[in-house]
TrEMBL record:
Residues 4-184 form the Ketoreductase domain. The keyword Oxidoreductase applies. Gene3D superfamilies: NAD(P)-binding Rossmann-like Domain. GO terms for biological process: monocarboxylic acid metabolic process; poly-hydroxybutyrate biosynthetic process. PANTHER family: 3-OXOACYL-(ACYL-CARRIER-PROTEIN) REDUCTASE, 3-OXOACYL-[ACYL-CARRIER-PROTEIN] REDUCTASE FABG. One of its GO terms (cellular component) is cytoplasm. This is Acetoacetyl-CoA reductase. Its EC number is 1.1.1.36. GO terms for molecular function: acetoacetyl-CoA reductase activity. PROSITE patterns: ADH_SHORT. Pfam families: adh_short. SUPFAM superfamilies: NAD(P)-binding Rossmann-fold domains (SSF51735). It comes from Aquitalea palustris. Belongs to the short-chain dehydrogenases/reductases (SDR) family.
Amino acid sequence: MTKRIALVTGGMGGIGTAICKALAESGHTVITTYSKPGKEQAWLADMKGMGFADIHAYQCDVTDTAACAAMLARAQQEVGAVDVLVNNAGITRDGTFKKQSKDDWDAVIKTNLDSLFNMVKPVLDGMVERGFGRIINISSINGQKGQFGQTNYSAAKAGMHGFTMALAQEVARKGVTVNTISPGYIATDMVMAVPEEVRNKIIANIPVGRLGKPEEIAGLINYLASDIAGFMTGANLAINGGQHMM
Ligand code: NDP
């Protein structure tokens, strides 16, 4: 596998950490971002303790267009040009539409969807000029089927795939692929914090009979980041234990 520079937004979270590890294990230089300072030194020390030395972290709020441009300019100067971009940062602010505030709507749309504009804009020209790029957007099963209490999240996650399909067509002949991954329920802190009784009901609806593992998402990203994945673009890859088949 050609070793490249990969940037993962929100890479210190449950799924993001597994993605960073998998990309680093494949020999890529990894850059990640966080928005809330405090945990980055311990996280970097953990990664270095596991033998991943070529890993870098930058603070950046993915909802802030200027901050993303400035962070990417700095990271690309200090580490190198970004070849693989994984848009992983995301949040939920759940509640039925009747109870949903404009703030909850805006926070979810900005973090999950506006972030694609903010992160892709500063790296796309470079990818096109170099004739290689991989853009991977982490959506959700709930962007494919909708979810009670998640109008904001379902709209943002469905919107991510609209972005994927349109941009994939624009850059297909330039060696740049754009794909969406739609995970089902994954055993991260977020899902493990759900009361056991509710979690068991969720698991009962998953044909495979268990939650997904962050490493299973990371393995798919490693494939999409690779040279061999050049013929896959504009796809929305479901990885959900059979919970939603399209
Ligand atoms: P986590 O909450 O563990 O991680 C989310 C990451 O996003 C955090 O590292 C957080 O960093 C970062 N983040 C949040 N807001 C911002 C912001 N404004 N700017 C920069 N970074 C931000 O979630 P998961 O690992 O579970 O989820 C990762 C992705 O996978 C998300 O997009 C989520 O929607 C999606 N997903 C998750 C599923 C699951 O079952 N877990 C299922 C389907 C999709 P910080 O704390 O520093 O803000």
